[in-house]
Design goal:
It is built from seven helices and eight strands, in the order αβαβαβαβββαββαα. By secondary structure, the protein is an alpha+beta fold. It has helices at residues 3-21, 58-66, 88-91, 113-124, 150-165, 193-196, 201-217; strands at residues 49-55, 71-79, 99-106, 132-133, 136-137, 143-146, 176-177, 183-185. The protein has a single domain, classed as 2-Layer Sandwich (Peptide Methionine Sulfoxide Reductase, Chain A), CATH 3.30.1060.10. The protein is globular, with a radius of gyration of 17 Å.
């Protein structure tokens, strides 16, 4: 854990204490009902496809997609920079070009790439926040889609335009599209972090509510038992 994230956790603890004393109920940012993408891929015969998405701290984004039906794996990591800088302490400086990202492996016969993007924009993060997400600030927390194919780039570009043209969020979607970037898995202690540390204040406040919003807004896509990285070790 970096010093900055430790400071955030301490600050959250202080706010939680005040909220409890005041009898308040603490909740993270709520999800938003948004339209499905007009442009999407058609279900083919391929049994596996990969998406790479960045939307703030990877703990929460990974946790959300681990609970999505049709997803067969979700790995926290880094994308946008070089291999030699793909480590937590360096990425935390905000000077590596990397964003904390999640590699989502999914079955396109069960869930489409566009449907994943709908969940990404609706509950996994707030796509109107530039170079930050909640309490985390810096380019390493930017909202980014790293398309793995030209088709994914086309779908993502069309969907962002659709959301902006429809003024769905009341503010512009600032998500960037960065093709031709490699993904590098994060250190083992970052994997399955939400599941393994549900009582950590940062997780309890910022990330666990996203799982509830996934269940509320996408009941047909919600899976109670997450698909974990550790299960394959």
């Amino acid at each position: 854990m970096t010093t900055s994230r430790f400071a955030v956790i301490v600050a959250i603890l202080a706010v939680v204490a005040v909220a409890i004393c005041a009898g308040a109920q603490f909740q993270g940012e709520r999800g938003r009902v948004i339209p499905a993408p007009v442009v999407d891929e058609t279900a083919g015969s391929a049994g596996s496809e990969v998406a790479v998405l960045a939307g703030g701290c990877f703990w929460g984004v990974q946790g959300v997609f681990q609970h999505v039906t049709g997803v067969t794996g979700a790995v926290s990591g880094y994308a946008g920079g070089d291999r030699q800088n793909a480590e937590y302490e360096r990425v935390g400086s905000g000077r590596t070009g990397h964003a904390e990202s999640v590699q989502v492996t999914f079955d396109p016969r069960k869930i489409s790439y566009g449907r994943l993007l709908q969940i990404f924009f609706s509950v996994a993060h707030n796509p109107t926040q530039l170079n930050r997400q909640g309490p985390d600030v810096g380019t390493q927390y930017r909202s980014t889609i790293f398309p793995m194919t030209p088709d994914q780039a086309r779908i993502a570009t069309a969907y962002i335009a659709q959301l902006n043209d429809g003024k769905v969020f009341g503010a512009p979607v600032v998500t960037t599209i960065e093709p031709n970037r490699d993904f590098y898995p994060a250190e083992a202690y970052h994997q399955d972090y939400l599941t393994l540390h549900p009582d950590e204040p940062y997780i309890a406040y910022n990330d666990l509510p996203k799982i509830g919003e996934l269940k509320r807004l996408f009941p047909d896509r919600y899976r109670a038992t997450p698909v974990l990285v550790g299960a394959g070790r």
